[in-house]
Predict the structure.
Amino acid sequence: MKNKSVEDIVLEIKDKSELMVDLAYSSILYDNKIIAKEVYDLEDLVDVLYQTLQKKTLEKLSNKKLSVNDSLALLRLAAAGEQIADAAQEIADVELRDVELHPILKMSIRESDQVFTKVEVKSNSILAGKTLGKLKLASETGMMVIAMRHGDKWLYGPNKKTKIDAGDILFAKGPEDGEKHLIGLANGDTKEI
Amino acid sequence: MKNKSVEDIVLEIKDKSELMVDLAYSSILYDNKIIAKEVYDLEDLVDVLYQTLQKKTLEKLSNKKLSVNDSLALLRLAAAGEQIADAAQEIADVELRDVELHPILKMSIRESDQVFTKVEVKSNSILAGKTLGKLKLASETGMMVIAMRHGDKWLYGPNKKTKIDAGDILFAKGPEDGEKHLIGLANGDTKEI
């Protein structure tokens, strides 16, 4: 973390905090404590990032390497990200405290502007054996994979280099039409992305 | 609002608060005070929704129409949404206080997992004259339109029935590949969605 720029850190806080919100909703929708605990771990990481950013920003300001305005903008953006991470933890907490969501409320959250989905990649799926970057899954279907289960291993916030294997479980979010497309691709019915 | 169910209200808080975060980032990236002010207006709306939800939840609980657990889950989810809305307002505040973002920081935020973009729909674009629902823009390109400018009118969080006209400016967010696709469609170079 020592060598990261303040811009890199504020961006990491932004991306991680937004991923946390998505993971937290997935955890309550699929009653999944493993994902909910990951939100807690990420909150610890965001806390460290936030403290590092505050220190680096003030150091750069005192060394005249940042203006007062730039420092203010950085501190405010980071504080907002930290607040979003806290909110995500609050959501994950609903899952961890064994407050099982009422089915009507679950249905309602699933049907928001962006739907959440969970699919298993079958062995005859064209997704199997390819990377997310190669598939361009997000731009071709609108569905962003937020977490994956590979056997008993979990991966959160996968990137372009992440390979999908047959048997993997994908947790994703995106538009309703995209969900149908992704389900078809994962179960092998749809052969073209 | 009187006839909305508690599930509808909590969903509206979720959707509006997430839209607010996206609008807030767009406002600072494109130095747009109109969008930043909309974030403020939406924060007022979310406050009203939150207060209504609290009252309705406690009324239903006292009438034995909700369990203690369901009430707790509703109150916590709504509180988390309200917190995200506050964070969005904090981000919009950076724009409204004339703290112009340093170009390096702008570039860095634009290059997050999901990029933000702004495109004008040319008259020879295949998007012109069609609704978002007909185009399936989100699932075909991965790009979600978060705001549109039509002449001097603005629309935030458009839905499937929203029609795109030539000359409209779209503010959208999504994966990098999706941005290229959307730009090609909007400027008329790409004829197939």
Q: What stands out?
A: Chain B touches chain A through 57 residues (CB under 8 Å). The mean pLDDT of chain B is 94. Chain B has seven helices and four strands. The longest strand of chain B covers residues 144-150.
